[in-house]
Fold these 2 entries.
Entry 1:
Amino acid sequence: MEQRVTIQNKELTVEISSLGAEIKSVKKDGVQMMWSGDPAVWDGVAPILFPICGSLKEDKYQYEGREYTLSKHGFVKYTLFEVESQSQEQVVFVTRSNEKTRESYPFDFEFRVAFRLSGSTLSVEYGVKNCGRELYFSLGAHEAYACPEGIEEYALLFDQEETFDSTRLEGSLIREDTIRVSEPSRLLPLKESYFKEDTLVFQQLKSRKVTLAHQNSSKKITLSFPGHDYFMVWHKPGGRYICLEPWCGLPDEVGSSYDFTRKKGIIRLTDEAVYSHQITFEL
């Protein structure tokens, strides 16, 4: 059964669901910073993407001569995690492979997500342990930040100048060509028109830090994502939110061969290695 876990300090109060280890609420000084998860628009808040990011071509892949099916973003967002440890300012969730996961994903793994508070900063650390002879996976974050005034009141400030070339999509698969959505700058004012093709897909960002800032107030959130090679920005018309998504992996390419081991952005672990990545939110 799903349970909600709350961690807090003097500055932040964070509520996390055991279903998908998904952040449901982040409040600073009593002000909600996350999207509400309104099912009339989009019922997510901050789903974790594992063992794939985005979609597979025809929702299928091949591994060692067998074909498997995985839906968009993988199964972890539907998985009930266990609380492995908890204190006032941190909690660690864990899930493991089992007979059910092996039906669609024939690998043995442990997957941990640790949430920790330090002042006005929330860190989220993902740990993937290979418990078999090899493990192939992708991993991504999908947090939706509240923009109650509408996204065009906000802008993204990157820590380096960027060209803002977004990879084009064909359905939910990536193409080879790109489109420039804005002139080179550190600043990207948000526009509804950017999301006519669903998602901005940045494969060549130099930045590993971005600030979502209200253009007429001091409200801001700074996201740091070292080690994440890909960055998505997503918004659904009618939603008062913007999703900032650091990914270690990509959707399938239009011309995918279905070979999971050759998938663009795939991560491979051998022996009993552990893959660990962290993102932080400074509010």
Entry 2:
Amino acid sequence: MALYQADWLLTLQGREIRDGLLAVQGKKIAFVGEQKDLPPVFRSQEIHRFSKSILMPGFINAHAHLELGWARGLVSPSQGFCAWVQRLMTAAQDQAPQQFEDSVRLGARECLKNGITSVVDIGNLPISRKALAEENIRSWAMHELIGLSLERATEQVLRVEGKLGGEKSSLHRESFTCHAPYSCHPLLWNAALRFAEQAQIPLSFHLAESEEEERLFSKREGPLWDFCFQRGLRLDASTPRSPLGYLLKNDWLPKGALVVHGNTLSELDARTLLEYQCSLVHCPRSHTFFNHPEFKVELFHEMGLNLCLGTDSLASNEGLDFIEEMALLKRQHPKLECETIVRMATCNGAMALGMQKQLGILAEGAYADFIALGLEHSSSCNLYEELVREGGPVNAVILEGQEVLI
């Protein structure tokens, strides 16, 4: 048993508690509330007190590529999205497997240092999944299938068939997924859908990320079209002129999918995602890195889409820091409520993963995944605004009731 106290508890359950107490028993939260209501069984426990801090749920990074940490600051996007992808692929060929493993381990620790207790990580190597399983962070490791030729697709499916969930614990789960509509053979999409259903993990994929992707589908032209056509992509006259339409035509959009980016989605597209109960992940700093079309966050929020936050990879981001992601999102969209932004970083991610009663909140019965975050003022006027605008250092990270060294 353990007791924690701070200036405020930010529960993400519709209330903030001044000088509240949080009790942990085993891996779960056993009490959240005021000291006067603390059950007698906890009253003899030592209280861990954090001054000038709030206790809140750990952040949930709904989209990352930790194995690309070696590429931080390496490739400029100045020549366009497709050129960036090609240069990154070339650079990756020169990296030893140890580089990818080290990147995953360092990335997981950087996440924890910045208060991220859960991460949905997209990787391409088995060594990355194994490394992540050994790190002390809650993770969903999704092996990314990619390839347009039948030969490559068949080889990938045969290689991963039967290896679903090779590593699994209360902190770590695995599945397979597809990269994007334009980069995967139908065999891979059908396999990924099957794997996700077996693992009971939402399928997560990139969609409507760039203007080059939009041109590929709408006009059958542009650098990304040329790149994919050379590798076997074929779209006939009956193929819909949008990436989402392409998924729908082939019955590749499952209910509850975790869709990443969506920078060129139309309002009609967004309504389709809503109909399919999908969640949408926005990566503010990576979005700015590429100068993608404006993410319609206010529209999507008003429509009722479940919006989450991600960091993307360190090849397109300076760091794995949700305080910076939230602050940038607020600067770019000043009309967006700070509470909405904090929810995107916490409980919305939990909802996307089907864990809304277990993660992203401070509540009895939820996992004891929370952080102590420094706030200089900790006033009662608007904790969400202080958090987004002035969020300070992460003073402690507790994962399943155990303090993690950061």
